[in-house]
């Protein structure tokens, strides 16, 4: 189907044991032209602008122009395991496993080849033994092409990786690199592995001035680097990972998140929960990003461009975060070995729009229109119940397909990309009233007769609610009533100060205008004894000054020793200084501790009393304890 100038076509390709086919929205109709019934279609891909589509089967590589469905060329390269277009679809690169027995004697033995899509001419071929890092990388305008060579990166002009390189990036132990998606200037991110126990390096350069490092991060735990650029190509997030966690806390290794930008800013993003970094995504404006991280239930946090947390979405079973193409809706979901719960948030208002479930899904991707998305159950992750569904983010199911039998499999689905700006942004809507997702009735959990009819208090995980954090939270708190934000003791002190200010209003006014008093009045004021309130405040201030040097362990031991002297005088000397922190857990002493707290702090809260001991001077403890047991 040819695309309309007014309404771009939303279509996707699917590949499985039934072959390869293309479907179009809104009803999921299959295309009759781009179709391959061969059961061994091993790979397929669109160009970045969606203008071309290519796939691989047992006969070789086929290339089609999507606008008019015209087949442009085919190449006999049946063992292809990797396929990539240049950004504008001008070149097509393919890689097949290297055959060491052939030794690469001729050009026909080269396992990496690059073709011109329009002419079908092979413009370059190389021997590339490893699959990791095999892809040539282009700048968005295709003016510069690059490829990894042992220990360095070669850059070629003109778009094709032919001839002598015009620039080389040499760096010790460089293992991976990435080119920014910016049209200019071009930036290059690199990963340099550690040597002899030293740190690894994540660095940012500007092409072609590789003599200057724009930003640099040294990381000790970094075997691999996964780069995520913002759309503008001015900054990137690097997920550094090590395969083995030496602390033994995680079977899956250890990950950290690094931030580097073209201004030279570099830092490690501070994550508030330990665990893996599952997913990272940039807002299309490039000024914020969202991260899902931590042990399950994982946390999701929104950060600004200064790597400061702005909003926390709470915790839950999630491992996918994705903005739609306009940045108006955020999807938080958990797929794979998670139950498939999906949440859709209005980014502007930071409000939950819809929430539902796609059970057994292993794949998720937004459509270019920013309204629809695909979920799929694919092999080999799951070999039963394979199929795909197209949804609207409000919860409405648009199209669905599943295999006819469990012997069939679905391997891959992917949307056709379109140029940015092809679809206009629409207002975010909530859950539609006509939408009702079927919920399977779960069998009731067995409960013993004595517990039936009551609410269970068992919690495996503490649920964290969404909240504003960082500077935004501080601004919100500043607008709130000061009294509500204070603790009980602070509120009492505040009321005491306000009452004292009202009582001493006359004397304060007189002291503020000394010229209005006679000499006799000034002498009387100077020789007058201080009021009881002033003495009490002075004593309180002195006590607080003394208590600042006392720590929690010393305080608990001191109280425990004094109580022991009263309850067991003969054993007091034996237990002195042994740290009887468990002494307060004895049930018979709970009421005594409450009375002790009430006497010293006017509050019956031993736990808070023990956690905040700095308000109680050590010197008054023996008399206070004795006064309790003498009543």
List the helices and strands and how they pair.
Elements: E1 11-16, E2 19-24, E3 29-36, E4 43-46, E5 52-57, E6 60-65, E7 70-75, E8 82-85, E9 91-95, E10 112-116, E11 122-126, E12 137-138, E13 144-149, E14 152-157, E15 167-170, E16 174-179, E17 187-192, E18 200-206, E19 209-219, E20 224-229, E21 235-242, E22 254-261, E23 266-268, E24 277-282, E25 288-293, E26 298-304, E27 309-316, E28 320-323, E29 329-333, E30 341-346, E31 351-357, E32 363-366, E33 372-377, E34 387-392, E35 397-402, E36 410-415, E37 467-468, H1 470-479, H2 482-485, H3 488-503, H4 505-512, H5 519-527, H6 532-547, H7 552-567, H8 569-575, H9 590-601, H10 606-611, H11 621-629
Antiparallel strand pairs: 1-2, 1-36, 2-3, 4-5, 5-6, 6-7, 8-9, 9-10, 10-11, 12-13, 13-14, 14-15, 16-17, 17-18, 18-19, 20-21, 21-22, 22-23, 24-25, 25-26, 26-27, 27-37, 28-29, 29-30, 30-31, 32-33, 33-34, 34-35
Helix pairs in contact: 7-8, 7-11, 9-11
């Amino acid at each position: 189907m040819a695309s309309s100038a007014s309404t771009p076509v939303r279509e996707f390709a699917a590949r499985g044991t039934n072959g390869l086919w293309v479907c179009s929205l809104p009803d999921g109709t299959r295309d009759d032209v781009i179709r391959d019934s061969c059961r061994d279609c091993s790979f397929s891909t669109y160009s970045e602008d969606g203008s071309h589509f290519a796939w691989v089967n047992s006969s070789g590589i086929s290339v089609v122009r999507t606008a008019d469905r015209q087949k442009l060329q085919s190449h006999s390269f049946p063992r292809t395991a990797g396929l990539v277009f240049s950004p504008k679809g001008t070149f097509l690169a393919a890689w097949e496993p290297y055959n060491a027995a052939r030794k690469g004697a001729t050009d026909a033995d080269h396992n990496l080849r690059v073709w011109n899509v329009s002419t079908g001419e092979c413009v370059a071929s190389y021997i590339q033994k490893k699959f990791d890092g095999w892809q040539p990388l282009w700048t968005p305008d295709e003016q510069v092409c690059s490829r990894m060579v042992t220990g360095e990166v070669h850059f070629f002009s003109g778009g094709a990786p032919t001839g002598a390189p015009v620039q080389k990036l040499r760096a010790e132990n460089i293992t991976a690199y990435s080119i920014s998606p910016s049209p200019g200037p071009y930036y290059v991110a690199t990963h340099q592995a550690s040597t002899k126990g030293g740190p690894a390096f994540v660095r940012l350069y500007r092409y072609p001035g590789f003599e200057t490092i724009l930003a640099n991060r040294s990381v000790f735990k970094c075997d691999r680097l996964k780069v995520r650029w913002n759309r503008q190509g001015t900054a990137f997030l690097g997920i550094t990972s090590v395969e083995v966690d030496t602390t033994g806390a995680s079977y899956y290794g250890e990950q950290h998140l690094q931030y580097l930008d073209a201004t030279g800013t570099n830092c490690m993003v501070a994550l508030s929960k330990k665990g893996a970094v599952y997913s990272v995504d940039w807002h299309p404006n490039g000024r914020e990003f969202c991260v899902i991280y931590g042990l399950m239930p994982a946390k999701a946090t929104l950060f600004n461009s200064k790597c400061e947390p702005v909003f926390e979405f709470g915790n839950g079973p999630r491992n996918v975060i994705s903005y739609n193409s306009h940045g108006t809706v955020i999807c938080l979901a958990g797929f794979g070995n998670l139950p498939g719960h999906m949440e859709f948030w209005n980014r502007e208002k930071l409000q939950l729009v819809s929430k539902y479930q796609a059970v057994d899904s292993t794949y998720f991707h937004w459509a270019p229109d920013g309204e629809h998305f695909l979920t799929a159950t694919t092999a080999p992750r799951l070999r039963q119940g394979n199929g795909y569904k197209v949804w609207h983010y409000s919860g409405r199911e648009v199209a669905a397909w599943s295999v006819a039998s469990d012997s069939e499999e679905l391997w891959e689905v992917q949307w056709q990309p379109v140029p940015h700006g092809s679809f206009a942004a629409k207002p975010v809507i909530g859950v539609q009233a006509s939408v009702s997702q079927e919920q399977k009735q779960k069998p009731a959990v067995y409960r013993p007769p004595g517990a039936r009819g009551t609410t269970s208090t068992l919690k495996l995980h503490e649920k964290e609610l969404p909240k504003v954090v960082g500077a935004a939270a501080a601004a919100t708190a500043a607008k709130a009533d000061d009294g509500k934000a204070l603790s009980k003791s602070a509120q009492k002190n505040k009321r005491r100060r306000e009452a004292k200010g009202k009582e001493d209003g006359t004397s304060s006014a007189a002291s503020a205008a000394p010229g209005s008093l006679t000499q006799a009045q000034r002498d009387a004021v100077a020789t007058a004894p201080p009021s009881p309130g002033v003495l009490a405040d002075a004593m309180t201030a002195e006590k607080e000054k003394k208590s600042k040097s006392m720590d929690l362990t010393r305080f608990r031991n001191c109280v425990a020793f004094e109580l022991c002297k009263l309850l067991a005088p003969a054993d007091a000397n034996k237990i002195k200084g042994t740290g009887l922190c468990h002494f307060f857990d004895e049930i018979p002493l709970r009421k005594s501790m409450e009375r002790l707290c009430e006497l010293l702090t006017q509050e019956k809260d031993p736990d808070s009393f023990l956690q905040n001991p700095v308000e109680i001077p050590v010197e008054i403890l023996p008399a206070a304890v004795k006064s309790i047991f003498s009543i």
